[in-house]
Amino acid sequence: MTVRIVVVLACMVVMLRLSEAAVYRIGDSAGWTTIANVDYKLWASTKTFHIGDTVLFQYNPQFHNVMRVTHAMYRSCNNSKPISTFTTGNDSITLTNHGHHFFFCGVPGHCQAGQKLDLNVIHPTSSTPLSDPPISSDSSSPSSPPSTTTIPAAGVPGPSPSHAASISHVAAAIVALLVSCFVANFAY
Ligand SMILES: *[C@@H]1O[C@H](CO)[C@@H](O)[C@H](O)[C@H]1NC(C)=O
Ligand SMILES: *[C@@H]1O[C@H](CO)[C@@H](O)[C@H](O)[C@H]1NC(C)=O
Ligand SMILES: [Cu+2]
């Protein structure tokens, strides 16, 4: 009985890990700095941020800090009224809503020198499931209209909506995982 519970718990852990949020170190090995001339805009453009992901700002707190700011303040590097300020040098921030998140270093001159970051957390409905390749490499294009607006001609089976198809992929993966979990269960 105990073994069964352990196996079930192990299966649950495996399934939770499938949806585990990512942790991104800002600037990768360079961290959050002005001296490495990191292009944080370019850095952010190589990532896809989802709700629940964590970003980690690592820097020397003697020389830098992190301010979360509005878009207007980001554009003008105006540090007079940050939304929030982080100063530990090892600041991890979990992304809890979609849209743009603006940050810069509040030390005078650093934002102007490029120590600024615009993170775009994608909307949950526009996120692509694990196994699906990106629809388009052009991230600036608007998302396609909902598949429910597609009306196939009468009598002709229309192509299955991609959203439904991807859900069934995920469902199939979950079923396969559950089956393998139960098989493992009965092996004891
Ligand atoms: C910075 O923003 C504050 C209020 O948000 C504003 O009063 C101030 O004029 C701005 N400073 C500059 C230099 O734009
Ligand atoms: C920095 O924060 C991360 C995540 O919170 C933690 O895993 C790591 O141990 C911390 N590093 C230091 C040097 O404190
Ligand atoms: Cu700085």
TrEMBL record:
GO cellular component labels? plasma membrane; side of membrane
Q: Which residues cross the membrane?
A: 167-187
Q: Which GO terms describe its molecular function?
A: electron transfer activity; metal ion binding
Q: Looking at the record, which segments are called Disordered? A: 127-158
Name of the protein this chain belongs to: Mavicyanin-like
Entry annotated with the keyword Thylakoid? no
Supply the alphabetized keyword list.
Copper, Glycoprotein, GPI-anchor, Lipoprotein, Membrane, Metal-binding, Signal, Transmembrane, Transmembrane helix
One Pfam family hit? Cu_bind_like
Does the keyword Hydrolase belong to this entry? no
Taxonomic lineage from the root:
Eukaryota, Viridiplantae, Streptophyta, Embryophyta, Tracheophyta
Q: Where is the signal peptide?
A: 1-21
Supply the InterPro entries for this chain.
Cupredoxin, Phytocyanin-like, Phytocyanin_dom
Using the record's annotation, list all stretches that form the Phytocyanin domain: 22-123
Write out the biased-composition intervals (Low complexity): 127-152
